[in-house]
Amino acid sequence: MLNVGLVTVPSSLIFISEHGTDGYCYSANHRQDGDILIGTHNGIQLLSRDGDELSEYSTSEEVVTGAIETPQNVFILHREADISIVEMCLACDITQKEMLLQFDRTDDVVVVMAVSDRYVVVNPHATKQLIIYDFITKQTETIHPDVYLLGLHFLPDGHLLGAGGGKLIKYKVENGKLTTVWTCDDVTDAYSVCADSVGLIYVSGMNLKLLYILSPSGTVA
Fold this sequence. Notes:
The structure is a single chain. By secondary structure, this protein is mostly beta strands. The chain has one domain: YVTN repeat-like/Quinoprotein amine dehydrogenase (Methylamine Dehydrogenase, Chain H). 0% of the residues lie in helices and 52% in strands. It is built from no helices and 20 strands. A four-stranded antiparallel sheet has the order 1-20-19-18, with no helix packed on it. A hairpin with a 5-residue loop joins strand 18 and strand 19 (201-205). The radius of gyration is 17 Å and the shape is globular. Mean pLDDT is 85; it is low at 1-14.
């Protein structure tokens, strides 16, 4: 079992900046240039690294719960009626789109997405599954993990982090299958996960005043 550090954020925390999005905000991901793509109920908005206000990035999609940029592409997870759709767009022209996968929706729980050099992974809540799309084979695999993962994040080395069920799990992804590398059992109410450029892993709980910090080697950060 791995060790974690727990940080309690004080209620007197002062934010550097605060911005109102156009509709509910579902996701936020950094672009390569440091700007932030924000998925909202009414499309995608952009917060410039040097700016002080939001601007429209795309309004052709609604209920955008994931917008992730890679060097060549932008991946968008959005909902249309009772279907969720993952599309791949050119980073230089997001009107050039290719649909990668879609799946039925039977609830209103936000679906999240993670993207690596080879895979796209999404987590339909109603079925407690993970759907994995392989860029090389153009095929999808549907798996049922032992723990339903609420948060997903790919590391630069291609390993997948999953948070849920009070656990943080690191997986190796190969041929559309998951192999557990390690499991941390001490992240109560684990809800979302990300990592920074030096490899530290951050897991938030449903109580947003709790933030767990985990080092890649399993030592207390």
